[in-house]
Write a structure and sequence with these properties.
Blueprint: H1 15-26, H2 31-38, H3 42-55, H4 72-84, H5 90-97, H6 103-112
Organism: Trichonephila clavipes (Golden silk orbweaver)
Protein name: Transposable element Tc1 transposase
Amino acid sequence: MPGKRSRRHFSQLSEFERSLIIGMKTAGWSTCRVAGQVDRLECAIRNCWEQWTREDTYVRKTGSGATRKATRRKDRRILRQALVDPTKTRSTMRADVGVAIVPQTISRHLADANHKSKRPFRVLP
């Protein structure tokens, strides 16, 4: 379909795009016109401009969220334990690694590495 704009709703603004937005807005362009030129949503343009006027900077802020408890070395150790003994439980892996993380985090690390832990059978089927 000609003329259809690509959807870039959830990608971050690059440093070049941020400086371009600030340049256009200081030149007197409207938010709608800048959004059309940069091919971004108007709210992204507004947020970038508000950050520039409020903080006098356009640098992207670091992401929020919890800090990582396990380092990459600990992640590799978790994966190695799962490969050596596939029937090892998440709780024993957590105790062996020595990091205060919940068992779901261990499952997520194994899933990221494309590996699933295998629970031991209680009884034979």
